[in-house]
Specification:
It holds the Pfam family DctQ. This is TRAP transporter small permease protein. Residues 24-151 form the Tripartite ATP-independent periplasmic transporters DctQ component domain. It is found in: Cell inner membrane. By secondary structure, the chain is mostly helical. The protein has one domain (2-171). The chain contains 6 helices and no strands. The N and C termini lie far apart (66 Å). Residues 188-192 have low confidence and may be disordered.
Protein backbone atom coordinates (compact mmCIF):
# COMPACT_ATOMS: atom_id res chain seq x y z
CA UNK A 1 0.00 0.00 0.00
CA UNK A 2 2.77 2.43 0.98
CA UNK A 3 4.83 1.39 -2.06
CA UNK A 4 1.89 2.18 -4.37
CA UNK A 5 1.31 5.54 -2.68
CA UNK A 6 4.98 6.51 -3.01
CA UNK A 7 5.06 5.41 -6.63
CA UNK A 8 2.02 7.56 -7.36
CA UNK A 9 3.64 10.49 -5.57
CA UNK A 10 6.77 10.27 -7.73
CA UNK A 11 4.64 9.88 -10.85
CA UNK A 12 2.57 12.92 -9.87
CA UNK A 13 5.79 14.95 -9.70
CA UNK A 14 6.71 13.72 -13.19
CA UNK A 15 3.25 14.66 -14.50
CA UNK A 16 3.58 18.13 -12.99
CA UNK A 17 6.98 18.48 -14.68
CA UNK A 18 5.44 17.35 -17.97
CA UNK A 19 2.62 19.90 -17.58
CA UNK A 20 5.21 22.61 -16.99
CA UNK A 21 7.03 21.46 -20.12
CA UNK A 22 3.82 21.79 -22.15
CA UNK A 23 3.35 25.26 -20.66
CA UNK A 24 6.91 26.16 -21.63
CA UNK A 25 6.36 25.00 -25.22
CA UNK A 26 3.09 26.97 -25.44
CA UNK A 27 4.78 30.09 -24.08
CA UNK A 28 7.62 29.87 -26.59
CA UNK A 29 5.18 29.26 -29.47
CA UNK A 30 3.05 32.20 -28.31
CA UNK A 31 6.09 34.44 -28.26
CA UNK A 32 7.15 33.31 -31.75
CA UNK A 33 3.71 33.86 -33.25
CA UNK A 34 3.24 37.20 -31.48
CA UNK A 35 6.63 38.44 -32.64
CA UNK A 36 5.78 37.60 -36.27
CA UNK A 37 2.48 39.48 -35.95
CA UNK A 38 4.23 42.50 -34.46
CA UNK A 39 3.03 42.16 -30.88
CA UNK A 40 5.45 42.00 -27.97
CA UNK A 41 4.52 39.29 -25.47
CA UNK A 42 6.75 38.97 -22.40
CA UNK A 43 7.07 35.29 -21.51
CA UNK A 44 10.73 35.14 -20.52
CA UNK A 45 10.12 35.13 -16.77
CA UNK A 46 7.41 32.50 -16.81
CA UNK A 47 9.50 30.38 -19.19
CA UNK A 48 12.45 30.53 -16.80
CA UNK A 49 10.26 29.66 -13.82
CA UNK A 50 8.75 26.77 -15.79
CA UNK A 51 12.19 25.43 -16.68
CA UNK A 52 13.22 25.46 -13.01
CA UNK A 53 10.00 23.67 -12.03
CA UNK A 54 10.56 21.03 -14.73
CA UNK A 55 14.04 20.36 -13.39
CA UNK A 56 13.11 20.00 -9.73
CA UNK A 57 9.73 18.27 -10.08
CA UNK A 58 11.21 15.47 -12.20
CA UNK A 59 14.15 14.62 -9.89
CA UNK A 60 12.42 12.00 -7.72
CA UNK A 61 10.84 10.14 -10.63
CA UNK A 62 14.13 10.17 -12.52
CA UNK A 63 15.94 8.74 -9.48
CA UNK A 64 13.41 5.94 -9.03
CA UNK A 65 13.64 5.04 -12.73
CA UNK A 66 17.44 4.75 -12.52
CA UNK A 67 17.95 7.50 -15.08
CA UNK A 68 20.26 9.76 -13.08
CA UNK A 69 23.88 9.64 -14.19
CA UNK A 70 25.67 7.29 -11.85
CA UNK A 71 29.35 6.42 -11.65
CA UNK A 72 29.44 2.85 -10.39
CA UNK A 73 32.89 1.95 -11.69
CA UNK A 74 34.41 1.79 -8.19
CA UNK A 75 31.76 -0.47 -6.67
CA UNK A 76 31.23 -2.89 -9.57
CA UNK A 77 33.98 -5.25 -8.43
CA UNK A 78 33.01 -5.27 -4.76
CA UNK A 79 31.18 -8.05 -3.01
CA UNK A 80 27.50 -7.65 -2.12
CA UNK A 81 28.09 -6.66 1.54
CA UNK A 82 30.68 -3.97 0.81
CA UNK A 83 28.65 -2.72 -2.12
CA UNK A 84 25.52 -2.45 0.02
CA UNK A 85 27.42 -0.54 2.72
CA UNK A 86 28.79 1.94 0.18
CA UNK A 87 25.34 2.34 -1.43
CA UNK A 88 23.88 2.93 2.03
CA UNK A 89 26.53 5.52 2.89
CA UNK A 90 26.16 7.37 -0.44
CA UNK A 91 22.37 7.40 -0.23
CA UNK A 92 22.54 8.60 3.39
CA UNK A 93 24.89 11.45 2.50
CA UNK A 94 22.69 12.44 -0.45
CA UNK A 95 19.63 12.31 1.81
CA UNK A 96 21.33 14.57 4.36
CA UNK A 97 22.30 17.13 1.72
CA UNK A 98 18.85 17.14 0.13
CA UNK A 99 17.16 17.35 3.56
CA UNK A 100 19.18 20.51 4.26
CA UNK A 101 18.16 21.83 0.85
CA UNK A 102 14.49 21.16 1.70
CA UNK A 103 14.80 23.14 4.94
CA UNK A 104 16.60 26.08 3.34
CA UNK A 105 14.24 26.12 0.35
CA UNK A 106 11.27 26.07 2.72
CA UNK A 107 12.70 29.05 4.60
CA UNK A 108 13.31 30.85 1.30
CA UNK A 109 9.72 30.26 0.14
CA UNK A 110 8.33 31.39 3.49
CA UNK A 111 10.44 34.57 3.50
CA UNK A 112 9.44 35.38 -0.09
CA UNK A 113 5.79 34.91 0.86
CA UNK A 114 5.98 36.89 4.12
CA UNK A 115 7.87 39.81 2.54
CA UNK A 116 5.57 39.72 -0.52
CA UNK A 117 8.59 39.61 -2.80
CA UNK A 118 7.85 39.88 -6.53
CA UNK A 119 9.98 39.18 -9.60
CA UNK A 120 11.77 42.17 -11.13
CA UNK A 121 10.34 41.71 -14.65
CA UNK A 122 7.32 43.26 -16.34
CA UNK A 123 4.83 40.80 -14.86
CA UNK A 124 5.82 41.16 -11.17
CA UNK A 125 4.99 37.58 -10.20
CA UNK A 126 5.08 36.73 -6.47
CA UNK A 127 8.40 34.89 -6.17
CA UNK A 128 7.12 32.27 -3.73
CA UNK A 129 4.95 30.74 -6.47
CA UNK A 130 7.82 29.56 -8.72
CA UNK A 131 9.93 28.78 -5.64
CA UNK A 132 7.17 26.42 -4.52
CA UNK A 133 7.95 24.18 -7.53
CA UNK A 134 11.53 23.88 -6.29
CA UNK A 135 10.37 23.12 -2.74
CA UNK A 136 7.96 20.42 -3.90
CA UNK A 137 10.63 18.90 -6.15
CA UNK A 138 13.38 18.70 -3.53
CA UNK A 139 10.87 17.40 -0.96
CA UNK A 140 9.88 14.61 -3.36
CA UNK A 141 13.57 13.86 -3.95
CA UNK A 142 14.19 13.67 -0.18
CA UNK A 143 11.28 11.23 0.17
CA UNK A 144 12.64 9.15 -2.74
CA UNK A 145 16.13 9.07 -1.18
CA UNK A 146 14.67 8.02 2.18
CA UNK A 147 12.73 5.31 0.34
CA UNK A 148 15.96 4.11 -1.30
CA UNK A 149 17.83 4.25 2.02
CA UNK A 150 15.21 1.99 3.62
CA UNK A 151 15.33 -0.40 0.63
CA UNK A 152 19.12 -0.70 0.84
CA UNK A 153 19.12 -1.03 4.66
CA UNK A 154 16.59 -3.86 4.43
CA UNK A 155 18.89 -5.75 2.04
CA UNK A 156 16.93 -5.11 -1.15
CA UNK A 157 18.37 -3.85 -4.39
CA UNK A 158 17.96 -0.09 -4.88
CA UNK A 159 15.50 0.79 -7.62
CA UNK A 160 17.98 3.17 -9.22
CA UNK A 161 20.62 0.45 -9.67
CA UNK A 162 20.47 -0.75 -13.25
CA UNK A 163 22.92 -3.51 -14.08
CA UNK A 164 25.08 -3.13 -17.15
CA UNK A 165 23.44 -6.22 -18.71
CA UNK A 166 19.97 -4.68 -18.28
CA UNK A 167 21.22 -1.41 -19.72
CA UNK A 168 22.71 -3.14 -22.79
CA UNK A 169 19.51 -5.15 -23.31
CA UNK A 170 17.42 -1.97 -23.06
CA UNK A 171 19.63 -0.14 -25.57
CA UNK A 172 19.46 -3.07 -27.99
CA UNK A 173 15.68 -3.17 -27.66
CA UNK A 174 15.41 0.56 -28.33
CA UNK A 175 17.62 0.15 -31.40
CA UNK A 176 15.40 -2.62 -32.73
CA UNK A 177 17.99 -5.38 -32.37
CA UNK A 178 16.32 -8.58 -31.23
CA UNK A 179 19.36 -10.65 -30.35
CA UNK A 180 22.73 -9.52 -29.16
CA UNK A 181 25.11 -9.09 -32.09
CA UNK A 182 27.81 -11.68 -32.53
CA UNK A 183 31.22 -10.12 -32.08
CA UNK A 184 33.94 -11.88 -34.01
CA UNK A 185 37.62 -11.19 -33.48
CA UNK A 186 39.19 -9.10 -36.19
CA UNK A 187 41.46 -10.99 -38.54
CA UNK A 188 44.62 -9.51 -39.91
CA UNK A 189 44.76 -9.90 -43.72
CA UNK A 190 48.44 -9.15 -43.85
CA UNK A 191 51.59 -10.50 -42.33
CA UNK A 192 54.22 -8.64 -40.43
CA UNK A 193 56.22 -6.28 -42.58
CA UNK A 194 53.59 -5.81 -45.29
CA UNK A 195 52.08 -2.43 -45.94
CA UNK A 196 48.45 -1.95 -45.12
Amino acid sequence: MLRLMLSRLYTAGAYLAAAMMVLLVLLVLTQIVARNVGVLVETTEISGFSLAAITFLSLAYTLKQGDHIRVSLLIQGLGPVKRRLIELWCTGVALGIIAMLVVHTGVMVYESWSFQEVSPGLMAIPVWIPQLGMLIGVTLLAIALLDEFVLIASGKRPSYAVSSEEEVAELLEEAGVEDEPVVRPATMPFTRGEAV
